[in-house]
């Protein structure tokens, strides 16, 4: 499960940077599950005082579970985050 922790760590840091620009707080919700080989399904959400925005689900395929995802992979999964007003 070391790889999973690393993925969460990287995702949190990226979400933190993105959400700081919008003055919101990042939260990673749900759980990571393995399915169809080495694919992690991850949901993330950025919340604010007035309520929570929709989750942004996505798949990050990995060749090895010990590798953290690249920034490009995270950007594809969380591309919608940049459209928050």
UniProtKB/TrEMBL annotation:
Protein name: Uncharacterized protein
Biological source species: Candidatus Kentrum sp. LFY
């Amino acid at each position: 499960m070391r790889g999973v922790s690393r993925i969460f760590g990287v995702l949190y840091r990226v979400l933190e940077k993105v959400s700081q620009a919008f003055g919101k707080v990042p939260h990673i919700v749900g759980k990571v599950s393995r399915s169809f080989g080495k694919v992690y399904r991850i949901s993330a959400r950025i919340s604010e005082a007035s309520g929570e925005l929709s989750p942004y689900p996505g798949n990050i395929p990995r060749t090895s579970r010990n590798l953290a995802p690249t920034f490009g992979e995270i950007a594809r999964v969380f591309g919608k985050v940049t459209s928050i007003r």
